[in-house]
Amino acid sequence: MIHLYSTEDKVLLAVDCIIFGFDGEDLKILLIKRDFEPEKGKWSLVGGFLKKDENLEHAAVRILKHYTGLDNIYMEQVATFSEVNRDPAERTISTAYYALINIQEHNDKLNKQFSANWFSILEAPSLIFDHNIMVSNAITLLRDRASTKPIGFELLSEKFTMRHLQKLYEAIWGQKIDKRNFINKINALGIVEKLNEKDKESSRKGSFLYQFNAATFDQNSGKQFILKF
Amino acid sequence: MIHLYSTEDKVLLAVDCIIFGFDGEDLKILLIKRDFEPEKGKWSLVGGFLKKDENLEHAAVRILKHYTGLDNIYMEQVATFSEVNRDPAERTISTAYYALINIQEHNDKLNKQFSANWFSILEAPSLIFDHNIMVSNAITLLRDRASTKPIGFELLSEKFTMRHLQKLYEAIWGQKIDKRNFINKINALGIVEKLNEKDKESSRKGSFLYQFNAATFDQNSGKQFILKF
DNA sequence: ACAAAAGTGTTACGGTTACACCCATGC
DNA sequence: GCATGGGTGTAACCGTAACACTTTTGT
User: Fold this and answer.
1) Which of A131, A145, A192, B59 could staple B15 via S-S, CB 3.0–4.6 A?
2) pTM of the entire predicted model
3) Domain shared by A141 and A186, yes or no
């Protein structure tokens, strides 16, 4: 079998992004109302097409910057979706990426500009094409990664309370966790540093703030990061 | 931003397959000597281009059938690789799939026809393009899947001994496992059925044959399949 | 009789889970 | 002084890991 590349079929390649955020209670995804045909007016993931001179990751970064205004976003490829008629307009293959952003840093103006909205993953509307499957795969992958890598911090502000962190993991796994067991385990992992500051927002007593300590984590990296309940 | 699909760049989309087999001792991958430019004569994964009227999975099935003669192969997508210059001949994006086949059923004639060879994952040669990274990602994924899904059986014949099964998992994880602990755990999972036959190949005493029991596994599917040591 | 692999249970250990009360503060 | 969330330790339990000897049979 001899290949002459030039005789092979070419296709459109798109990137779709599942953008996760955390508001203190629920894990959320950012969706936009699609403003062009087909399926204009329906809810959709943010996406765009791959250009000749960039790789998929670069395209994802570009799209994320466009829709969120943010750089340096934590991102990982989910999978590539290629059903022949997934997009009724034209044959398009799409690679999905999930991204973790700090919802506080996200600019509300952009939401108006793009008719975008945050939806709890428990109450998200039905999406165009195969985007529901993409979201579902992304959630599965995120749950796995959150259990084996210290990526949760990407969804929080630099300083956070133990309660924030716990609520985050509860939202990711859809499961209540015992307060004492959670704190014990986090401390055993030695990846957060207790600060001499308190957050007074949530209670009269106030609760201590922590920050992720990459250095400590790297030292411990002999042992595995596993966070399961 | 308004998209007119017709103005977007199109690209070549390829599929590359990491074909795993198990010879009783080592986990192996099937590689071919590439018979066309660029990189003619170098070792490579088997691959091909996506056609207009098929999805990626279909392309992978087609390629596997072509190079191994086999249908109904267990397969899973690994990831999509898109560096701009990954293929020096022309911009090509490639989606990698790993596949598990029973090495016994594989036809040696085809190996001659395609200058193909099985290599232990521990001694595989350097490959063209980014194929080494694909293999490495595939192994990581396989290890994860083997720990959480009963897919190991895809690499064995229908009937196998406990020793075969243990050697397989040892090869996948690159780690010795205690014989008694292994058997205890497999039996606790209740996914294999002991047959009234013995394999006399490996010892004078002979060892009992087992087969995977999908029915039993489905009944147990309330509990999770987890196989780690 | 001996070599070579098969087969078989129990104990110790470590990590996970379950669980309840006092503390500090603002109103 | 009381209501609200913050903070803290221990004991029971369960799964995992470590470990050695007997059995079978072909030569």
Assistant:
1) B59
2) 0.95
3) no
